[in-house]
Amino acid sequence: MVFDPHSDPLYQQAMQALQEGQWQEAIQSLEELLARYPENEAIKQFLDEAILKQKLESSSGRSVHPRRWPAWVRRYLLGVAIILFLAGAIALGILFINQRILPAMAEVQKEYQVKAMLEEGWIYLARGELDQADEVFHRAGALDPGAPKVLDALSAIQRQRQAERLYQEGVRLQEEGKYQEALEYFMEYITQTPYHRDAPQRILEAHRQLELVDMFQEAKKVFQKGDYIQAIKLFENLRASNRWYKRQEVARYLYESYMNLGYAALKNALDSIPNTEAALDYFRKALQEFPRDPHATREVTLAEYYLNAVQAKTQTQWPAVEHYLELIYNQDSSYLDRRILPQLYEASIKAGDMMREQGDLPMAYHYYLKACQLPITNRTLCQAVPYTDNGVAFPHGNTPCRWCDAHACRWRGWLR
Length: 416
Prior knowledge:
The chain is mainly alpha-helical. It has helices at about 10-20, 25-35, 40-60, 70-125, 130-145, 150-175, 180-190, 200-225, 230-240, 245-265, 275-290, 295-315, 320-330, 335-340, 340-355, 360-370, 405-410. It is built from 17 helices and no strands.
């Protein structure tokens, strides 16, 4: 057997006994070692030295100082001690790591994972993605069930779901046009959650809609009172605020207001250019609201005819006056509260007079004939007026009429 002092504890025990002067203990250990390693000279030398020192101590009665080890032995023993110390330190370090460091690292890693999950969940919650946030928060709770931050996150999910029901109800009411009720739900919603989605914008829109509702109701009341000029102003302000709000209704009220103002102006339009122009302007604005409306189109046409007639009358262009008044009468004989008929009768007579004065007797006859055919009761202008043509009396006797009938004209040879 090969002697290996590093691996045999008995050798270390023998060396320790020699160092301490325990000769009997050293002899016993070395003899046992020599039995194991009979060929080892170093063991034999140490054994002889121990026996000698034991005998010297017995014979002299004095203690023999322990043998000081050679330098190489001391270095060897020091190295062994260092190795044993390092081995022990490593063992203790591994034990410390297993019992303290690794659990601490695992705890830190768990906290990091929980923190990351919570941050991800809060992002989902801020976006309104509640299902995703709920799933992430529950995964964080599985890692750290009792963590206060996890419990707070789960509570926040419940509060947000309750708030979400308020938000959805507010949206429904807003879409139904119930803006006041919707506003109350949105206000309650933003008090219950910091994640408002588009609630502030919806609140602002609800306020705007309520303002539009108030503007519409005020304009409608003014219209119903018959103050059409003020109603037009209010409806135009409403349209300027939001041209899409009750678009058709606003247009209808504006149309009715302009038409009523046009009719009112027509009542004072008899031979009045300003009033006729005002009526025409109102009718044209009404037509702008509904460009294909037959009533507005008709009123614009008639007002244009009447304005042309009045303007021609100021210039004593009676044939033109008769022309435009006849156009009006043929389309609406009740125009201007049936005052168009007397005007047409007068214009026909005066147009005939103008033609007669100009020597155009056939045209004079034409206008006189049209006048006598009108259904008018007061025919004063058609009554007889004494006059002759170049000294030749009419065949009606001494009091010829102002206009001649067809027979008389043919008799006089005016019409061929």
